[in-house]
Amino acid sequence: MNFDDLKKEWNAETTEGSNISSDMLKIKQSHTPIDKIRAKMKHEFFYQLAFLVFMVFIPFIAEFSVALNQLYFMTYAIICGFTAYYFLKFYRFYKNSYDMSMDTRKNILWFYYEMKLNIELYKALTYIIVFIIVGFMSAYFLIEKATVFAKILTRLSIVYILLNCFITVLIIGLITELWAWYCYGKYLKQVKKVVDELDYE
């Protein structure tokens, strides 16, 4: 083998090395948003857990009647059931996100699509809980404020109440979308950018 052949081989190896380091740089870029998402998930878990614990004390703070107490704790049990399912799915995803048995690109791609699915699940859970709470509030007015409610229950007030419920659901929907974007969406977009760049190459 002459000197020119050795030179060509050396240049080929150098080019391969630069490609690998370029890919590794992109993977490092993806780890930053992935790590941020994991941190947000951990905080979210503790916030929701703290809120569930706080909800136990609401009947005692508001001094609900015996009938309303029973209804409240039935509602609370349903909310806990839905939340427990969500927590389980979220925890499994969080734990599996540290599994590096796949190659790096597949791992990032898997993380991206699973996180998208979990965000949709997160939003669905929020809407379910909101509708359960709206149902409980309706029961609260019928049980605790029946006489007051009967006096104001005219055609105009029914339209007003329904309009208020609709606007409340819209506002909560908007807050949920913005919160999901703020906590996870913007970082997920960065991960997608890395995946697209790796696919392009």
UniProtKB/TrEMBL annotation:
<feature type="transmembrane region" description="Helical">
    <location>
        <begin position="124"/>
        <end position="143"/>
    </location>
</feature>
<feature type="transmembrane region" description="Helical">
    <location>
        <begin position="45"/>
        <end position="65"/>
    </location>
</feature>
<keyword id="KW-0812">Transmembrane</keyword>
<feature type="transmembrane region" description="Helical">
    <location>
        <begin position="71"/>
        <end position="88"/>
    </location>
</feature>
<keyword id="KW-1133">Transmembrane helix</keyword>
<feature type="transmembrane region" description="Helical">
    <location>
        <begin position="158"/>
        <end position="184"/>
    </location>
</feature>
<keyword id="KW-0472">Membrane</keyword>
<protein>
    <submittedName>
        <fullName>Uncharacterized protein</fullName>
    </submittedName>
</protein>
